[in-house]
Amino acid sequence: MIELYRDHNAVCCQKVELVLAEKDISWVAREVSLPKGEQLNPDFLKINPNAVVPVLVYDGIPVVESTVICEYLDEVFPEPVLHPADPLGRAHMRLWTKQVDEALHEAGSVLSFATLWGDRFRKLSLQERQRRYRNVGDPIREDMYESTVEHGLDSPYVKRAAILFERAFANLESKLLDGAEWATGARFTLADTALTPYVARLEYLGVLDLWLDGRPRTGAWWERVKTRASFEAAIGGTLSVDDIAAMRATGERLRPHLRSVREDTSMAVR
Questions:
Q1: What is the CATH number of domain 2-76?
Q2: pTM to 2 decimal places
């Protein structure tokens, strides 16, 4: 049996769910609500002391970290193949998953903590907020979250987030050449499943067009992604009306700020 400890609206969890859907793997959801802090419950900490989701449990053995889980699933369940056939192609795929882990996840987190998550955190006591920051377990990320919660859109990390997204979209547009339909060429791979939840989040926020403007190949890639059954199974069909409404309201606050920041950063990235 496969169990997935997840929050249905967490991008890292959606990344794993896309792979499960692509491979048509049956699994059981174990909900861990991040807004309620359920990742800090003692029972969950026994499964993952790092206090993060997702966690995949296969025949009683946990596997942690979303990118590791995706590669694990691609090896254990080899059909359909979600990696390029050649070593160089696989290296390029891993450059994408590395960029997602090291840049886009931070960028998405910053936008969330500067707005929606920040609103929720500010309702907590100072003591509880400090506990949540410390739970990150990384002093650099702790500072990032504290800055974005306490200063909102005025946090310097917001500009950094815009730059990180700008670099990713510029990179993707440059790779979709000579008829390439997917991030690493002709085959849909873990590179595409890694990128998808973060691009989807921008779409639900209503700000994706800021980065698709002038990038027709990336826009066409995104339309192809959304036609896949896995997208509806892992993202589109899992979000509630309230989820979507909250993201759109957040995006309305973000949009004018991001437009201004992106105009300042896009030329520097190019």
A1: 3.40.30.10
A2: 0.92
